[in-house]
Design the sequence.
């Protein structure tokens, strides 16, 4: 009866609708117009525990008043980031249920702290009206974008110098056989690279550089209007000795770059070690072979690769120390240069060092498998600041410092976390980088983008496909392309109405080693074979491309896609979703695209309105794609506005300026507090810490006393 249902509501107190495991929550206001009879009750129920798991008896009861009838309202709290399906149900006076049988499940994505839903009439399908002024969102986007002006931020002195250490300089290198000289060009999305892209450059991407990492490294050039910026790094090719002096002079004069030359065999062994030994561990792959131990043992067949790694790092540091002045900044990037902080700190105590991780950082259970785990941590702790793109990876780093070195952290002002390493204060920062939104938006208006857009539109029309899902990944196992294909198969099986509509355009960019050979050939073959099997089962459902697309062709494809789908197993930095958002928001005639991104990609945690998925659960992956495709147009446009505003504000330039500003403030506060910059006991990474280094957390007295008391009770 109705009374029994109300009693169940009262006893359960609505099932404790707090978030699971401390997860962030969103407060949702429901509103619907329902014509009822005396004694009827209206409830909302859905696919989550707070909504009763489709059981009206455990749903959320709505209330009304004689002044507002027939409007019924209710408030619920659901976990943020969840895709919610729900319906309204009328509980009749005799205890029977009247469902919204004539419409599909209502859907929304829980984002932010508050969300208001106006669902119109009971049992009537309606595009959900979000109570958000989209004009105000647009205005806020431009107001936030104006904040990225460099003049709005306090900054360093114009005489200051920033040295950027990167294994690969952000340059395109070619040899002119007529003039017998090397020519260089910035590798960017900006006007400097238009001539190259107009040729449809199809050169492969070398494994020694991340396409995303090198992009943000080059964008530090924007700071040259504020201070001096010098790049220190290697080139993409082997330069003979007779040309090295001339190359050094040309790069210094034209690009303010200092080249570091490695012999071909030395560079090959170094890259093999970084990408064959270090990279898998930092991407959470537990080592199970003897290669890990052989890489560090002395007198091995290929020599001590760790010793080679340190010697290569020293070559990069020597190029900095020769020109260093007191107080200069040193920025070092990624796995290839993890020993540079201690090598710079031992030679330039006043250096303001920041180390950047564009890769994930593993948990202590995996990181401890590296034989030189403590040496790496001690070297990194010689930096003044360590930058991560995701707080999860920063937390893993802090956990390793506590577990292996016994060093605990404490929070400081400005959102930084502080470690004290032998008197040297190290700050950890977690902030995701963006892209150069202004340049990308400007280039999206070019005629060649519109021409490529028409070509893609005609091609899709000729194939008879109206729903386009896009994948744009490197051809490597960590991209999880096979998992995406499994999800597509499950999607077409569960929802056969899409079998003649959906087309997955999967772009796979091949990676090449220093010898010019294709990497991960076995994985490429497996992806190709899986795509053929899928095409045989569902003809016309997949278009597999393996090309490095120019800007116009790439962004035109983005703008013609209904969804960008990522299935990466682990990804520290991916900028493709940001470019996709801007292409859909700014390109004329673009679709209102949505994002379905692996929860193991760092960018999934910062872009609002992203549908996060576990790519290993192909059933859930397929249903997430379906829910996104079924999302009402108004909701898609709302999240597109939010995503565009985020990308327009959080630019790579603002990110770089904020880092420099934070480093300047930290250094000033350290000096004003009478702290030391870098003591002799900590500036060499291979010396032991004065703290007790153990394999577990340091024992606390209260923990010991509690255990002792418990033993007496027993």
Sequence:
């Amino acid at each position: 009866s109705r009374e029994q249902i109300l009693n169940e509501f009262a006893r359960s107190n609505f099932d404790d609708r707090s978030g699971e495991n401390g997860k962030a929550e969103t407060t949702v206001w429901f509103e619907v117009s329902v014509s009822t009879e005396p004694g009827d009750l209206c409830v909302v129920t859905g696919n989550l525990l707070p909504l009763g798991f489709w059981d009206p008896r455990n749903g959320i009861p709505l209330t009304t008043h004689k002044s507002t009838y027939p409007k019924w309202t209710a408030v619920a709290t659901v976990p943020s980031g969840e895709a919610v399906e729900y319906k309204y149900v009328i509980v009749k006076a005799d205890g029977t249920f009247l469902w919204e049988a004539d419409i599909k499940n209502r859907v929304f994505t829980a984002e932010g702290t508050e969300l208001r839903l106006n669902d119109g009439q009971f049992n009537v399908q309606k595009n959900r009206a979000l109570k958000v002024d989209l004009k105000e969102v647009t205005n806020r986007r431009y107001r936030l974008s104006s904040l990225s002006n460099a003049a709005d931020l306090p900054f360093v002195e114009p005489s200051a110098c920033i040295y950027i250490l990167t294994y690969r300089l952000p340059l395109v290198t070619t040899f002119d056989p007529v003039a017998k000289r090397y020519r260089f060009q910035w590798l960017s999305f900006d006007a400097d690279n238009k001539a190259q892209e107009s040729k449809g450059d199809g050169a492969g991407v070398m494994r020694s550089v991340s396409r995303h990492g090198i992009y943000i490294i080059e964008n530090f050039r924007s700071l040259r209007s504020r201070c001096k910026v010098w790049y220190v790094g290697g080139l993409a090719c082997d330069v003979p000795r007779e040309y090295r002096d001339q190359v050094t002079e040309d790069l210094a004069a034209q690009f303010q770059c200092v080249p570091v030359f490695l012999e071909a065999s030395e560079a090959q062994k170094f890259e093999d070690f970084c990408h064959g030994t270090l990279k898998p561990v930092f991407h959470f792959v537990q080592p199970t072979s003897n290669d890990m131990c052989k890489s560090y043992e002395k007198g091995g067949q290929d020599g001590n690769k760790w010793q080679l790694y340190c010697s290569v790092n020293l070559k990069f540091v020597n190029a900095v120390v020769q020109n260093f002045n007191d107080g200069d900044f040193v920025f070092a990037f990624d796995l290839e240069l993890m020993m540079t902080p201690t090598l710079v700190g031992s030679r330039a105590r006043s250096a303001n060092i920041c180390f950047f991780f564009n890769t994930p950082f593993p948990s202590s259970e995996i990181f401890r498998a590296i034989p030189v785990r403590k040496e790496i941590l001690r070297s990194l702790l010689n930096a003044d600041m360590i930058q991560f793109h995701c707080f999860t990876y920063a937390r893993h780093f802090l956990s390793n410092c506590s577990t292996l070195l016994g060093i605990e952290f404490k929070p400081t002002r400005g959102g930084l976390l502080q470690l004290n390493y032998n008197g040297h204060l190290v700050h950890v920062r977690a902030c995701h980088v963006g892209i150069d939104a202004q340049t990308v938006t400007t280039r999206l208006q070019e005629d060649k983008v519109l021409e490529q857009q028409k070509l893609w539109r005609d091609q899709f029309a000729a194939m008879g496909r109206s729903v386009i899902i896009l994948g744009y990944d490197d051809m490597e196992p960590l991209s999880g392309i096979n998992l995406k294909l499994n999800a597509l198969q499950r999607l077409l099986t569960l929802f056969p109405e899409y079998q003649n509509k959906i087309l997955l355009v999967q772009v796979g960019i091949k990676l090449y080693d220093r010898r010019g050979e294709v990497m991960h050939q076995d994985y490429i073959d497996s992806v190709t074979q899986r795509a053929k099997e899928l095409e045989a089962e569902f003809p016309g459902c997949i278009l597999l491309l393996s090309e490095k697309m120019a800007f116009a062709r790439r962004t035109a494809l983005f703008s013609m896609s209904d969804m960008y789908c990522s299935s990466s197993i682990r990804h520290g930095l991916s900028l493709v979703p940001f470019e996709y958002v801007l292409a859909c928001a700014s390109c004329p005639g673009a679709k209102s695209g949505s994002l379905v991104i692996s929860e193991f990609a760092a960018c999934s945690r910062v872009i609002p309105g992203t549908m996060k998925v576990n790519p290993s659960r192909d059933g859930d992956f397929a249903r997430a794609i379906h829910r996104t495709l079924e999302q009402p147009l108004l909701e898609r446009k709302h999240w597109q506005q939010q995503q565009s505003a985020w990308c327009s504000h959080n630019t790579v330039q603002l990110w770089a300026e904020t880092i420099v500003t934070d480093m300047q403030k930290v250094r000033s506060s350290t000096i004003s507090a009478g702290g030391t910059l870098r003591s002799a006991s900590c500036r060499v990474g291979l010396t032991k810490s004065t703290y007790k280094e153990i394999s577990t957390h340091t024992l606390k007295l209260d923990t010991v006393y509690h255990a002792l008391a418990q033993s007496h009770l027993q």
About this structure: The first strand starts at residue 25 and ends at 33.
